[in-house]
Design a protein that fits this description.
Oligomer: single chain
Strand order of the largest sheet: 2-1-5-6
Number of domains: 2
Distance between the termini: 27 Å
Number of helices: 6
Number of strands: 10
Helix content: 40-55%
Amino acid sequence: MILRIVIDDQIYEVQVPDAILAGARDYFDQLDCDMDGGWRMGREWIVLPDRIQRCQIVADRLLTALETNNVKLGTLMAGYILTRLPGVDTVIPDIQGEPQNTQFEMGYPKLESSAPTLEHGASAGSGFGKLAALEQAGREVTPVFKVGRGYRFSVFDSKTGGWQDSPLIATESEAVRLRQEALKSRYESLVAGGG
């Protein structure tokens, strides 16, 4: 995956191999544990940073990695952001030392054709075919991710064009179960013709 970073109208791209995303999961969880105890963001002390604040903190480290040409650290920081903010494609870090002003832009992935695909027994206008609906639902419901001591997943809201986080869930197994329900619900809506 590629994460773009915009600094003073100059665009940098950090390539994050899938192996890093999978292999650095423990490192990313350790970053979350470090932030669980609170973190200073500019002049403010944040007792328990939320997901966006955590990514802003990490984006500040990513900025430092780019400035010092530390490719390994930059790749890891970009990987953290990509795993914690599904759908993000661009980071605009604050260069004045105020991480809470860092912005993220989402590049929502779309199917190659916006027209619903038809399968045996489906009629035009009835919605997505089963395979296309499953693929689309998989894009719109993220995998479960750890936040502090709990777990969440996110669902893409096509009406607002943004991601909605689930409530904080105590156990990973419960989060996986609830995510499966959300995925099934989205899949059924797409097959039925819901946008």
